[in-house]
Each structure stands twice: as C-alpha cells, then as structure tokens.
Amino acid sequence: MSRPRTARSLLALGLAALMLGGAVACNGGDEEDAPGVDKVTFVTTFGTFGREAAAYVAGAKGFFAEAGIEVEIQPGRAGDYNMQLIRSQSAEFASVDYAGAVMRAANGEADDAVMVAALNHKALLAMMARPDGPIKTARDLEGKTLGVPTGGVAGSLFPGYAELAGIDISKVTVKEMGPELLIPTLEAGRVDVIGQFVVGAPAVAAAIGAQPVILPYSEYVTDLYGNALITRRDLLEADPDLVRRFTEALLKGLRYAVDHPEESAEILRAKVDTTVPAVAAAELRLLGPYVDPSGDLGRFNASLVARGVATLRALGLLGESVLPETFIDFSVMGEVR
Hints:
Elements: H1 10-20, E1 24-26, E2 38-43, E3 46-47, H2 54-60, H3 63-66, E4 69-74, E5 76-77, H4 79-87, E6 93-97, H5 98-106, E7 113-118, E8 125-129, E9 145-149, H6 153-156, H7 158-165, E10 173-177, H8 182-187, E11 193-197, H9 201-208, E12 213-216, E13 227-232, H10 233-238, H11 240-259, H12 261-271, H13 277-287, H14 302-314, H15 324-327
Parallel strand pairs: 2-4, 2-6, 9-10, 9-11
Antiparallel strand pairs: 1-4, 3-5, 6-13, 7-13, 8-11, 8-12
Helix pairs in contact: 2-11, 2-12, 9-13, 11-12, 12-13
C-alpha cells in the first residue's frame, strides 16, 4: 500500500526552492505517483558537486526503485540548513558532517533528528588556500582570513582545531558566507583560506588554476567520521523499514559512485547541467578511500564514536551528558562487526 508523503511546511519548501534553485526527482522510472512507492526528500551535504553523486546514482541505477522509494533530491547548504529542513519536516533524510551533528546534539539542536549511517569512515573536513599565497601550514593562519559556510562545521570546529594546532584564534578572522561563494571568494583573493572537504580539491583547483594547499582538520582533530546520514526520530519510530530501505539504497549508490567515477559523473551531469564531468569524476576518485572498503560501509564503530566524543569534550565542545545514543541509532545498519 502506498504511504502518503509526510506533511511538510509549505513555507519551508518555498524557501528551499528559492535558495537551492530547484530539486531533482530520481525515481528510476517515468511513472509518477506509482502505487506502493514511498516518497521522500533527501538533502545532499553541500551542493551538487561530484562528491554528492551517490543519491543521483542510486536513482539512475534503479536502487531507490528496487527499494520501493521515489526520492526528490535537494542540494544542501551545510549542517545548520540541512538540520533545519529535517526538523521542519521539509525532508525525511539528509547528509551532514558528523562532527557538526554531534555538536548540535550537545546543544540540544538535534533532539528530533538522529544519525543512522556513516557515509565516510574518516573525516573529510579541511581548509584550502592558494599555492601562491602565504599559507603553507596551520601556524600560517594567524593574521589571515578564513571563509567558512554559514552554519557549517568548518567554523564551529575551528576553535578546537586551532587549540590543538597551537594557533592564537584571536589572530584569525573568520567570515561566514553562503557555500556557493567560498571558491569564488578565494579565487578573487577576498579571503586567504576557505573551509572545504578534502575531496573538493578538484573543484578548487579548477577555479584557481592550481592545486590548492590542503590543511586537513584530521591532522589535529582525530577519531571523527566524515559525513553521516540523518533522519527524523519520529520517522524512524513510525517506519523503520522505510529508513532501512532508503539507507541501504543510498549506500549502494555511494559504493557504485566511487567504484565507477566516470560513469557516475555523467549521471550527475544528466541531472545537474552545471556539472563538469572531469572534475566530478576526480572528486569521486578522491572520495573512494573515505568510503569504507571493509564491508562495514554505513556501520558506526562504537569505540571510534566514544573516542571522538572524548576528543570533542576535551576541547570544550561537548557537555558531559552527551552520549553516543544521544545522536546515533545503531539499529538500522548495526555496529561494526
């Protein structure tokens, strides 16, 4: 029996359409409103870059259709924005940076959302600078300007990174901006360095004409996952089978995307006409090592989660009451074997 789409806020949808420039439906077929099909909305982590191809691939290859799901894909705009869409019931699923989601849980900003799958078993967050500029190491950040996406983890985690790297944070100017402005602002020289994902280097290189200097957050802030899949707690409680089917189909799309980067880049271009296939494929090749090859893709390791919580707590970014079960449900994918 077909399950009606969960109620959404019309205002939130209107704002999302205005800000995101449209959405893409990926149902694996030509029919709409097919009987027996669940309809959901998924929000990417950050735009429609090559590294975000998994959901588009899952749609094009029929993985969502096989799971009995029709998916509308909306480009995300960093963690706070994505979380707002989940909390307002404007989306059923979203990808967010793991560290940012943990910190939101600590602040009570994610009580109605929960992580159900690890999309990357290593942290992706980094800073990138022009190779002809003054920044070569973390200590070079003092006296410089860092551009970060509004509401994104690059800004919220930076104080912890700075502490561990021995940087005087008072000497770094942090500017928040829309995620679409980060690379153009670096290219124009209006900031010295920007927050990015490691796998975003090809897009940055294409814009500035050279391979950027990359400063991974993981060099200092360890034991953190990369991106994670979140859903609403009420949806997980009401329809755990839907959450499981969506999660498994998305992970199949992710695995296929990194195993077939060129084909997946073309799939993305068919859905997002601004895609440059060579750049998208390069991002997917870089993403490959961050997609767990051990057979545990999607599963959280409770020990690693506990170590990451301890790291964030030691940096003063989490309270003592924040436990893994506060923000992760291990039942959908199970724990690492």
